[in-house]
Design goal:
The protein is mainly alpha-helical and about 210 residues long. It has ten helices and no strands. Helix 1 runs antiparallel to helix 3 and helix 4 packs across helix 5. The longest helix has 27 residues. It starts with a helix and ends with a helix.
Length: about 210
């Protein structure tokens, strides 16, 4: 981890030095694909702009997928270390950079999960049936529950459901955007999201009933 942080830090520091050595360029106005091309051409400041623009979203995605801030920080760093070494793998004809980085994050999550079994799936059979059939949105749950508790509940969902609820309910992406990012049909996203919401509602209903006992 220390080596990866040093690598990212070195790239960002080089970008900062470059910006102080020449007139500041408004990188925020430059499309992601052009920033990557500039980075490939040796412009470290372009990578700094990409990092600052996309780090928060990648971190939030991984945090909700894992429920673990330390793990989320490590995997997010890995995503950008990977981008440093594989900038040419991004094809703007196939989608936007945020979706591409999300795909890289999911691959790294899969690898991590193979060796880390702390993320135990929420067993559907262990919970009573939800009274409303899952109609309550996750956003509504978040208003009534502790945020950390919600993160843990989402992290315990089976991965196919967890991805849908993180992308659609937490990152507020459209069904079509989520389908494109996950590489599945729009109807599949709808059904997974419905099931994820239902499982979360059942979990919180079950907990509430247990507290009253």
């Amino acid at each position: 981890m220390a080596g990866k942080e040093a690598e990212i830090s070195g790239t960002l520091s080089a970008g900062a030095r470059n910006s102080s050595e020449r007139h500041m360029v408004d990188h925020e106005a430059i499309p992601d694909r052009d920033l990557l091309q500039r980075f490939c051409g040796g412009d470290r400041e372009a990578f700094t702009a990409l990092y600052r623009a996309h780090f928060p979203a990648v971190f939030r995605f991984v945090l909700y997928m894992t429920g673990d801030r330390m793990c989320a920080g490590e995997i997010t760093q890995d995503v950008f270390v990977w981008l440093v070494h594989h900038p040419g793998d991004f094809d703007p004809q196939r989608g936007e950079l945020p979706a591409f980085l999300g795909g890289v994050a999911r691959k790294l999550l899969h690898r991590r999960q193979q060796v880390d079994r702390r993320w135990l799936p929420l067993e559907e059979a262990a919970l009573p049936k939800a009274e409303d059939g899952g109609a309550v949105l996750v956003a509504g749950i978040e208003m009534r529950q502790d945020v950390e508790e919600l993160r843990r509940a989402i992290a315990a969902l089976p991965e196919r459901y967890r991805e849908a609820v993180v992308l659609c309910d937490l990152q507020e992406k459209s069904y079509q955007q989520a389908a494109d990012e996950l590489g599945c049909a729009l109807g599949t996203v709808r059904s997974r999201l419905h099931r994820a919401r239902e499982l979360l509602v059942r979990k919180f209903q079950w907990k509430k009933e247990g507290q009253r006992c």
